[in-house]
Design goal:
A hairpin with a 2-residue loop joins strand 9 and strand 10. The two termini are 19 Å apart. The protein is an alpha/beta fold. Helices cover 37% and strands 24% of the residues.
């Protein structure tokens, strides 16, 4: 993706995540270079960019799996560089679905879903089981699935179990890393509908790393585009389709986009 002047949008009044001047590097290579981004409370933000641009890196930096070189990240108004106690308090308020589910292969579905609850809360086994069954129902799975192990699940079921685990602590923010990757079109569409329904009914804020154009059209309220280590554009799907940046024009009006939008490339 060609370098360009970064897109600068006005700060949001109710931004639940604020990223300012974030730089992340692997060795001498800067993956994120002075990146700024706000995620508004209650929205589903689709985060896109070319392969290898660093989409997942931003998510992993926010949640603390990748160290940053410089910059500030605030979640719920709290600087994540603050005390360990403050950070743990914030982590308790988000849930994460990694690209391939990242279920523990040695644990069954029940144990996988209960894992984050055991880590943060001291509750009875009876309550743990009630939470498990509630989350399983929430993501559209049958009760008997709780005794199965990840090796006994389909790809779509793994995604739903991972989502149930992400929801186990009733988070306010959910991070989704390529949630429809590896799913067939019907399964991916069903998953998009599920995410949208949960966002509306639970009031979730969703940060979705994706390259799936269908997800961007059907599930996302707003889209942010990563290029050359910075946000080069952000806005609605209509904004993306009206953008003049060469990569955006190719991405949102190319051959794949025509199948989704029903419009010819320009």
């Amino acid at each position: 993706m060609a370098a360009s002047k970064p897109y600068i949008a006005p700060p949001m009044r109710d931004a639940i995540i604020r990223v300012r001047d974030l730089t992340v590097a692997f060795g001498s290579r800067k993956v994120l270079d002075g990146l700024n981004l706000d995620v508004e409370r209650g929205e589903i933000l689709g985060f896109v960019g070319a392969s290898g641009a660093g989409k997942s890196v931003l998510m992993r930096t926010i949640i603390g799996l990748v160290p940053k070189v410089s910059g500030k990240i605030k979640v719920f108004g709290t600087d994540l560089d603050g005390s360990e106690k403050d950070r743990r308090s914030i982590e308790r308020r988000w849930g994460i679905l990694f690209q391939h589910g990242a279920l523990f292969s040695s644990l069954n579905v029940r144990q996988n879903i209960q894992f984050p609850v055991r880590e943060y809360l001291k509750v009875s086994q009876r309550l743990l089981d009630e939470i498990t069954m509630a989350k399983i129902a929430m993501v559209g799975l049958k009760p008997e699935v709780v005794e199965r192990y990840p090796s006994e699940l389909s790809g779509g079921m793994i995604k739903r179990v991972a989502l149930a685990r992400a929801l186990a602590l009733d988070p306010e923010i959910v991070f989704l890393d390529e949630p429809t990757s590896g799913l067939d079109p019907i399964g991916a569409g069903d998953f998009d509908d599920l995410v949208r329904t949960l966002q509306r009914t639970l009031g979730l804020t969703v940060f979705m790393v994706t390259h799936d154009l269908d997800s961007l059209h059907t599930a996302c309220d707003r889209i942010a585009v990563l290029g050359s280590g910075k946000i080069i554009a952000q806005g609605t799907m209509a904004d993306m389709q009206a953008a003049t940046h060469p990569w955006l024009r190719e991405y949102f009006h190319g051959k794949r986009a025509r199948a989704v939008t029903g419009v010819s490339g320009v």
